[in-house]
Design brief:
- The chain is of the alpha/beta class and 280 residues long.
- The chain contains 8 helices and 7 strands, in the order ααααααβαβββββαβ.
- The protein has a 4-stranded mixed sheet with strand order 6-5-2-7, covered by helices on one side. Strands 3-1-4 form a 3-stranded mixed sheet.
- Strand 5 and strand 6 form a beta hairpin.
- Helix 1 (41-53) runs antiparallel to helix 2 (58-65).
- The protein is elongated.
Amino acid sequence: MTDGGGPSGADVDDDGDPCGPSAAGAAPRGARAGKGRRLHTQLMEAMVWQFLFLGWDVVAIAENNRTFDNTVVESTVRAVLKRYDDTGFVDYLPRASRERLMPLEHLNMLLSIVGQNPWLYLQEIADTLRVMTGATYTRNYVYASLIRAGYSHKVMVRAAAQRDQLQRAQYWEDVSMYIPHPSCLVFGDETGLDGRTARRKRGWGALGSPVCISEILFRGSHVSVLALYSRSDGFTAWAHCLGGYDTATFLEHIAVLIKAVMKPYPGADSVLCLDNCRIH
């Protein structure tokens, strides 16, 4: 986002926070030696606005804002822009104590929260924990506590709440009475894409273990796809239409797919399986 590197030194502290240079040979009041005072949040927001909406470069931003704070130099502006580019904020994130660990009772509540709702963002987890415990934790502290507990942020595995393992086992037992081999089966079904549905894909879980959530899967009706897939070849043929399938459209498309994929019984790809949707 910035226009390249620049001089650092007294303009950026050890934590990467922008600050102005101190007077020659002396540390600024209220700060440790080698560190300058931090800039006001509104001044840093103005720098970002000038960069994004006015198209100013780092030199112009530094010169313009030096009239409000004579400690602003080019490397100060670069640090502010980099912070905004990395985090979406210009203010300084509160830092959790590195020595103090979360009490065990609160940690167990934290793990319970992410276990039941692994898709929550860090700030949402911190807010929920505050409601349950009365203690306020920053999102940085919540993140550090989850990492220490062996958790990581990963892509969630979605399992349909309608799934029933006993019914699946009974299904295969019944089907085996009519087919000589599972390769005979070709399955057909419709699916859809709805751009209005936005689901979070990542959630918190223990290292080495998938994050699996159970939910009622929502099928969109904007674009519908009818596909055939087999045990050996995966998806073999498909058709699509705008909106949902009705009986006439289904029969028109399935006839084309059957001619392209199905083979004589009892060979492979010879038995078509559909669910009990009424248009089938």
